[in-house]
Amino acid sequence: MRLSVAPMMDWTDRHCRFFHRQLSRRTLLYTEMVTAPALVRGRALHLLDHLVEEHPVALQLGGAEPEELAAAARLGAEAGFEEINLNCGCPSDRVQSGMFGAVLMRDPVRVAECIAAMRSSVDIPVTVKCRIGVDDQDPHEVLPDFLNKIVQAGCNRVIIHARKAWLKGLSPKENRDIPPLDYNLVLAMKRAFPDVCVSVNGGITALDQARAFLQAGLDSVMIGRAAYHQPADILATADRDIHGDGSVRDPRDVVADMLPYIERHLTAGGQLYQVTRHMLGLFAGRPGARQWRRTLSEGAARPGAGPDLVVAALAAMPMDAAPVGRIGAGCSGTEVSVDAWSIPSYPVSRTFDGDRGLCRHAGRAFGCRRRRGSGCGVFLRLSGAGLWRTAIDADVFGDLAGHDHRHLDPLCPGAQ
Ligand SMILES: Cc1cc2nc3c(=O)[nH]c(=O)nc-3n(C[C@H](O)[C@H](O)[C@H](O)COP(=O)(O)O)c2cc1C
Fold this sequence. Notes:
By secondary structure, the chain is of the alpha/beta class. The protein contains 17 helices and 15 strands.
C-alpha cells in the first residue's frame, strides 16, 4: 500500500475514515489506537465497529502483553481488518504508564515477543509503527537493532515516524514537531532491510513529497495531520497520482456522497457534527473554504441540525465560474436527465433551503442557487479548474422536476 492515513486518536474514527474513503479508494486507512486491555479485558468490542465501505483499514493496537495482544489481534482479524499494527511510537503519559507506545523502543525483545504472539494468532499482516528512538538513545544504533528483532519475529512491514520521542519534558503534541526529522535514516533502513516494506511518516504535507519518497525507494508513505486538515489536497488525487489506479475526486462530489451516510447516522441517533467535524478542511486552500468551515462548525452542533446544513454550505460556495450554457428556449444538444440532477434521497425539489440547493449532472454534484426573476432559465457554469457549477431559475425549477430530460447547449447564446 503506497499511501496511508496515520492513526490519530479522536480524529480517525469511523466517520473520518468513511469520509476519507470517499476521497481515495486505494489509500490504506488506520483506526485510532485501541488498547488490547480494553478489547480483551474490557470486552469493549464496539471499538472495532466499522463499515465494509471503509476498507482497506488497519487496526492499531496499544499493548505490551503478548498473550493479550494476540487475543486482541484475533478479535481485530475476526472483525475484518486487513492489518494489525502495534503502536511503538506514542509518547503520552497514559500510554507510558501502561508501558506501551514509544517506551517499547527501549524493549525490542518484548516487542518481538508481542509480534510473534500476534503472528501466531492471525493470518493477516502484523506491522509496527515506531519512532527512530527515544530520549538519549542513538537512533543509528537502536533502530537497526529494533528492526532486526521485530523482523525476525515475523513483522515485515514497518512505519517509521522519522523523529525521536522525548518521554519526559515534551507533550505528545510537541513530540510531533520538536524532535528533528531524520528521513535519511529511514531511507538507510530500507537499504539495510530490503525485504521489509518500509513506510516513512512525519512532517509530510504534500503528495509530491510522498512521490519523492517512493521514487527514492521507500515502499510507502504515511501522512497524518496534512491528510486530516487538507484531505482533498492529499487524498483526492492519490488514486491517480500515487496508486496509479483511479480518477481524481471533486470535493463537491464527496460532499454529495456523504449525505446518505449522514442521514443514516442521524436516523441511528447520531449527531451531525460527529461526521462534519472531519469535513471542515475539505475545501482548504480553495475559494469559499472559510465560509464552508464556519457554516459547518457553527451550525452542526445545533439541536436538530441535519444534512440540509451541509447542502446549504455547499450551495453557498462562491460561483466563480464562467457560464457555458443554459437550458431554455432555443437550446439543444447535450441531454441532461432529470434523475441526474438529484441524488437519490435529495430530489432537487427537496434540496432547496431558501435559495440554495444541490444538483447532480453527469454524476457530478453541484451547489446551486435558485435565481429569482432573472428569467434566464437553468444554466451551467464551468470554472477554470473544470468544475461544473449550476444555477437554477425559479421559473423553470418546477418544470424541471416534472420532466424526464432537458436539453442543454453549451454554446447557447445569451447564457450568463
Ligand atoms: C490528534 C493526533 C492523534 C494521534 N494519535 C495517534 C495514535 O493513536 N497512534 C499513533 O501511532 N500515532 C498517533 N498520532 C501520531 C500520528 O500517527 C503521526 O505519527 C504524527 O502525526 C506524525 O505524522 P504527520 O506529521 O504526518 O502528522 C497522532 C497524531 C495526532 C495529530
